[in-house]
Amino acid sequence: MLKAAPQSGKRHTRRGCAPVTLSVTAIAWAVAMAGSAAANADETKTDDSENIVVTAQKREQKLSDVSASVSAVSGKFIQQQQVQSLSTLSNYVPNFTYTKESDVDIITIRGLGTAGGDTLESSVGVYVDGVYLPKARDAMFPLYDLDHVEVLRGPQGALFGKNTIAGVINIETARPTDYWTGYVQASYGSYASTEETAVLSGPLSPVLSMRVAAYHRQSDGYIENETPDHYDGGGYNTNAGRLTLDLHPNSQFKLTGKLEFLDDKELGVGRELQYIGPKDLANPAFQGIPSGQLYRQISNQTGLFDVDNTQGPQAWLSALNASYRFDSGYTLSATAGYSHFDNRISYADALPINTIVQNDPMTLATKNIEIRLASPDDKPFRFITGFYADQTTLNYTGYSALNFASVGNAIQSALLARGIPAALLPNAAGLAAANTVVTPGNGFSENSHSWALFGEASYRFQPAWTIVGGLRFSQDSVSMNQYFNPTDANGFALGSVASLSSVLPKPNALVAPGLTIAQLLSKTYTGVYNTIFSPAGTPAINQSETEDSVTPSVRLEYRPRPATLLYGVVQTGFKQGGYAPGTSVSTLNNFGPEKALAFELGTKTQLGPADVSVALFRTQFRDLQVSAINAEGTTDTMNAAGAVSQGIELGTHWHVTSHWSLSADYAYLDAHYTNFDNAPCSIDQLLASKTSVCSQNLSGRPLLNAPPSSFSGTVEYHTTFQPGFEFSAAFTGTYKSSYYTEVSDSSELMADAMPLFDIRIALGRPTQHWTAALLVHNLFNRQGALMGQRPSLVADPSTYMVVPNEPRMIIGQLRYEM
């Protein structure tokens, strides 16, 4: 049995991991028992990690034949390097970033992503086995037992449709095999981190194959929380499982069904204070907080705010893929999917003061279907055409709570100055309860549905020349409902007589003829809070809209020799508009679609033993959806900016000798606003301003999450020696230059330039089916910030937090394979 990680003295528990741990053990036993059967099976397994077949253009193609900038990462690399998530994978893929804020994930390709909240669609389309996942947070699926991951850069509007204006992440899981095989891989590393994967695959009958995979990972976290009995930051506890069935009754028809489950918890606060401004430093609650020291924090709240941070989805994902190849060579295929995400969050700031807490905010259900007809591949004229439809339902079902005790303190001070006896006013606990605002405008539901017709045709008009044209018509509709019902911590309407009566020692005491103390406080509180929050009973907002879009594309391909491809691409992209709910008042941000026009020139060629790729690109964005300051001083999402993303991407993969190989990828990016004249102020501007409301012009300034330089390279050595041993060593270096992670252009709120190095040394004996490896991530223990963020409800605009990167991780791996 695979052993659990040792428990520490803090609250690190394996809640809910028993079923998947048992599944991992059961599959491991099955793998071992099936070993003799596998020995008699036909050995058809090959390492095709360097000849990945991708579907970037809705057809199976070798990467070198795709006329687009695509990075493909093999499942073998992901497994060997223990790349557990898209966030980690982004380190290895230039011009791809994955930024985690408190409760929002932002996926960015070539400097374009969507920030602003989980209600917004991502600018990067994420697909898992052909099933579309509309929100960035849905991409938290762990990466295990995969065939490969494709990163398509640039708009993909014609074939993939809406919300692929920046690019596409296409995740393909491993498929069932027609021979019995399987493996068990387990690892243990720094900070009591464990990872276990078990896979069993093979034929159940001559026409039916199956593959079952179970996965578990856990870590105690690497950010020390100095508050006793609270999670350290950066921990996790993930359980996942997948069942895939392949039905292939003949050579023409194939049906693949998949059911996948995920229970992912991120434990502890992954942020820490980097600087405390003078106004906050004067607050006694901030005394003794470690700031400016990476990997140390105090996260200690009381009462309602006494939470241990846990966030992450519980999700089900199903997919059905069918294809039928006619005798004429035409192929009819269909993909249908359903996903259900319960994105749970128990969240508070990494502070010792009661500020904000959230719990269970969002449930998301999506179903989609796509039907395609493709012509034979071996004709001068080829086409693919199809129909697509989806439906998504989003609901905020939990609560948020904000602490406004400072408002209550100010009101009490004013009443005391007017001669109201202190004995009639709330005590500290009552004051906190009456001024903890729960569900401030957080009731929100949204329903959307889309349909599209699309097609792409190519014609090889000369032996070396091919022209390709694509077109997609889409209709996207969305409707929403937002209601307002702010209450206090006791469940009474905010500022009501009932609210104040519940916390007053003598609520019916008269302070004036016909006026009780509860009535006086209610009038006072209501007068203050109605300027901040919509009062209970405010009419709900119901809106809907429908958008039509047409996204064409054209490509020209030239092959002067079989191993060389030159191409030019003009393509368009479209991202639907929508609604961003206000956090407090009865206002709703209604923003329209954004559009992109992209140009790309590239080549893919073979120079001796080296494969080389080059891509020059420029994308112009119109009506870019951004977060900006409105006249009232709150943040809206609106179509307020234009932007340009341009640069160059280079890649090479080189078999130097039979033992040595080298791969290197580099990207230079210039992504900036061309028009953004109402952007939020920077920290320095807020400090210099006499008001808390100001704006600035960021035209010409960089986009968020757009590192100017990014690099990934690996040198690998592989050899065999007697008696039947294999030895390999890989050294990987990655780099991303510094970039802004917050829209205000504040130098404090940036990701640090991050050179990272990994090393993996492995020894195996294939005849006995085992491999042992030592893996070191962040070999030189580089420390820095992945992003900067201002905390909620602090007094000083210069107070900010950072998300630190993982320190050095030393991991031991053991793998048994049939």
TrEMBL record:
Cellular component aspect of the GO annotation: cell outer membrane
TonB-dependent receptor-like beta-barrel domain residues: 297-779
UniProt topology in membrane: Multi-pass membrane protein
PROSITE patterns referenced in this protein's UniProt entry, alphabetically: TONB_DEPENDENT_REC_3
Annotated TonB-dependent receptor plug domain residues: 63-168
GO biological process, one term: iron ion transport
Listed InterPro entries: Beta-barrel_TonB (IPR000531), Beta-barrel_TonB_sf (IPR036942), Plug_dom (IPR012910), TonB-dep_rcpt-like (IPR039426)
Keywords recorded for this protein, A-Z: Cell outer membrane, Ion transport, Iron, Iron transport, Membrane, Receptor, Signal, TonB box, Transmembrane, Transmembrane beta strand, Transport
Compartment list: Cell outer membrane
Signal sequence region: 1-41
Protein family membership: Belongs to the TonB-dependent receptor family.
Protein's UniProt name: TonB-dependent receptor
Organism: Paraburkholderia pallida
